[in-house]
Amino acid sequence: MESANQTTSVTEFVLLGLSAHPKLEKTFFVLILLMYLVILLGNGVLILVTVSVSRLHTPMYFFLGNLSFLDICYTTSSVPLILDSFLTPRKTIPFLACAGQMFLSFAMGATECVLLGTMAFDRYVAICNPLRYPVVMSKVTYVPMAVSCWVAGSAASVVQTSLAMRLPFCGNNIINHFTCEILAVLKLACADISINVISMGVTNVIFLGIPVLFIFVSYLFILTTILRIPSAEGRKKAFSTCSAHLTVVIVFYGTILFMYGKPKSKDPLGADRQDLSDKLISLFYGVVTPMLNPIIYSLRNKDVKAALRNLIFQKHFTQ
To answer: How far apart are CA 96 and CA 101, in angstroms?
Structure first.
């Protein structure tokens, strides 16, 4: 009876953000706002280029357009909330809005994991089986592959969000984070979260472990094929077609594996420094990585740079 009386219905959550470090809030507000604008501009330009330039209507750039759109969706689901938390002393978010934000963030992250694996397969076929590439990666194949990535990520997010938000919260509604990050919300639950931990572990294997393994094996085959090319110029050209994707994979998975690789039910006592570290890692994953993606693909991809120059020249010439 006593535990039942202690369990109250939580209708809203309070996001702490960097309230414990008020001097950092204005600095981070400016930095995150500038990064968000770069994300919108960079990824928006990539989408425009891949859609407008017919020469880029290939599986590789179709997946790249999906990645750019995904990055815009992911950051838009969290960055406005983060910016608002820097300006508001006590930022509250309704329970359902918190669940919605959690769903969108998790869905976008899970989708990107699978999408990067799919892009690795595209590079594998292009380099290791170039003659069969037009047949294997036809439009009938690569469009359903991209759709499957979105469906799989959304389905995983539905499961994780519903498991998290059905838990009882015993009056403690203060989330020690910028957003409704799922691990931060789980810490507030006053019930056994072993099912959540197991489910998160299974999801980590499916959406982190398997894609990473698939990407690793794909690039082993790609590297072996590239080393067999007799000319240095041929090896350089072959590697240049996948170097941007490989760089994005290292940045993305390196951050997310460090952040989500070991789901915990409770933090040890006196873990203020660890909490701050988790927040900053999440911030890096949520803002810096989507900002770097279009920069990496623009700097390391000759086709994108050439298409962008032609598009700018056409616009300028027609005016």
So the answer is: 9
